[in-house]
TrEMBL record:
Cofactor: FAD
Gene Ontology MF: a single term: acyl-CoA dehydrogenase activity
Annotated stretches, region: Disordered: 177-197
PROSITE patterns in the cross-refs: ACYL_COA_DH_1, EF_HAND_2
UniProt keywords, alphabetically: FAD, Flavoprotein, Motor protein, Muscle protein, Myosin, Repeat, Transit peptide
InterPro entries: Acyl-CoA_DH_CS, Acyl-CoA_Oxase/DH_mid-dom, Acyl-CoA_Oxase/DH_mid-dom_sf, AcylCoA_DH/ox_N, AcylCoA_DH/ox_N_sf, AcylCoA_DH/oxidase_NM_dom_sf, CALM/Myosin/TropC-like, EF-hand-dom_pair
PANTHER family: MYOSIN LIGHT CHAIN 1, 3 (PTHR23048), MYOSIN LIGHT CHAIN 1_3, SKELETAL MUSCLE ISOFORM (PTHR23048:SF3)
Signal peptide: none
Gene Ontology CC, one term: myosin II complex
The protein's name: Long-chain specific acyl-CoA dehydrogenase, mitochondrial
Organism: Larimichthys crocea
Keyword Transport included in the entry's annotation: no
Domain spans labelled EF-hand: 7-42, 83-118
Phylogenetic classification of the source organism: Eukaryota, Metazoa, Chordata, Craniata, Vertebrata
Transmembrane regions: none
Length: 375
């Protein structure tokens, strides 16, 4: 049986913890297969069910397992022979968008061209000959039987086992798919679980595995650092500054702001993860989204070099809380109705007007004020 190094075990334990949604250092039985895949394995559901002792559907959803019990199972999976019929089928099942046993031929060609042992275009076309139906789809179980009988294929297809298990290979295949002019749909991949309630991720095809890992981290943050203090903050009328700095340490602030300007430099999907998880927590007190996605982008896009260097790194760290004073007694989202005016006075500006409902305003270190410099 496979023996892992101490460093590997430590990494595995950290990854295992990201799937713990309850905070009891355990995961549900139905998460085990996904964790193994996230760690570079590609067990079939049948394999995992057998290792778990053939539990019932209820047990799969409700029973939990800790890391010490999980590790021997991971070793057993890693020790299993690679390159079996089930391995290949599971590798292709990742790309089965409709769950009907087929993948698009164009998609399959790109997957084949992305394997570790490169196949030539001629070899790919030889394998694909006669495999597509009138809609351009391939029944992948029949295709696997076909390719395993083709002597010219040798061991090249072994790489397919890693398509659903190893992020680097999957990311390469996915990138190629998005660049293809023949395909318009994002590529599905294994998810932590099917959605049973609002806080489950379910099958969300716009998110990558990196987004899923980030989501688990953000969710843990809200469970540990926000929800337990929510009632206290509601009573006090404001959140603590400490939680802002902790959010900064977690990389949750200014996700969309370019790294060169002092932000995280992430994509909109990563930002969406932070929005969703805050809504799932039902704790709206921390105004992270307004700070990160409304106020700071004004500085990033229109601020001077001095302003960018002074404010954004501190805002990303949670040490400078930002707000935007936009709403007035007679104008809210109708910015054409804004009456606050700004008048140049030497090197200064004089502001006259009234603002209300300023999110983060009570504890803000920097407030951007919306006003007119012309009547």
């Amino acid at each position: 049986m496979t023996e892992f190094s101490a460093d590997q075990i430590e990494d595995f334990k950290e990854a295992f913890g990201l799937f713990d949604r309850v905070g009891d250092s355990q995961v549900a039985f139905n998460q085990v297969a996904d964790i193994m895949r996230a760690l570079g394995q590609n067990p079939t559901n049948k394999d995992v069910t057998k290792i778990l002792g053939n539990p019932s559907a209820d047990d799969m959803a409700n029973k939990r397992i800790n890391f010490d019990a999980f590790l021997p199972m991971l070793k057993e999976v890693d020790s299993q022979p690679k390159g079996t019929y089930d391995d290949y089928v599971e590798g292709l099942r990742v790309f089965d968008k409709e769950g009907n046993g087929t993948v698009m031929g164009a998609e399959l060609r790109i997957v084949l061209s992305t394997l570790g042992e490169k196949m030539t275009e001629a070899e790919i076309e030889a394998l694909m000959a006669g495999q597509e139906d009138e809609n351009g789809s391939v029944h992948y179980e029949a295709f696997v039987k076909h390719i395993m009988s083709v002597k010219m294929f040798k061991s090249g297809f072994i790489g397919l086992r890693n398509v659903s298990g190893r992020r680097q290979v999957l990311s390469a295949a996915t990138a190629r798919l998005h660049q293809s002019q023949h395909l318009r749909q994002p590529v599905p991949r294994p998810e932590p679980s099917s959605a049973k309630n609002l806080t489950d991720i379910g099958t969300r095809r716009i998110f990558s595995e990196d987004h899923d890992i980030f989501r688990e981290s953000v969710r843990r943050f809200y469970q540990d650092e926000v929800i337990p203090h929510h009632k206290e903050w509601e009573k006090a009328g404001q959140v603590s500054r400490e939680v802002w700095e902790k959010a900064g340490e977690q990389g949750m602030l200014n996700v969309l702001v370019p790294e060169e300007n002092g932000g995280i430099g992430g994509d909109v999907y990563s930002a969406a993860v932070t929005w969703e998880e805050q809504m799932y927590s039902n704790c709206t007190g921390p105004g992270f989204a307004l700070h990160s996605d409304i106020a700071v982008p004004y500085i990033s896009n229109y601020g001077s070099k001095e302003q960018i260097e002074r404010f954004i790194p501190e805002a990303t760290a949670g040490r400078c809380i930002c707000a935007i004073a936009m709403t007035e007694p007679g104008a809210g989202s109708d910015l054409q109705g804004v009456r606050t005016n700004a008048k140049k006075d030497g090197s200064d500006w004089i502001l006259n007007g009234n603002k209300v409902f300023i999110t983060n305003g009570w504890m803000a270190d920097l407030v951007l004020v919306v006003g007119r410099d012309k009547p």
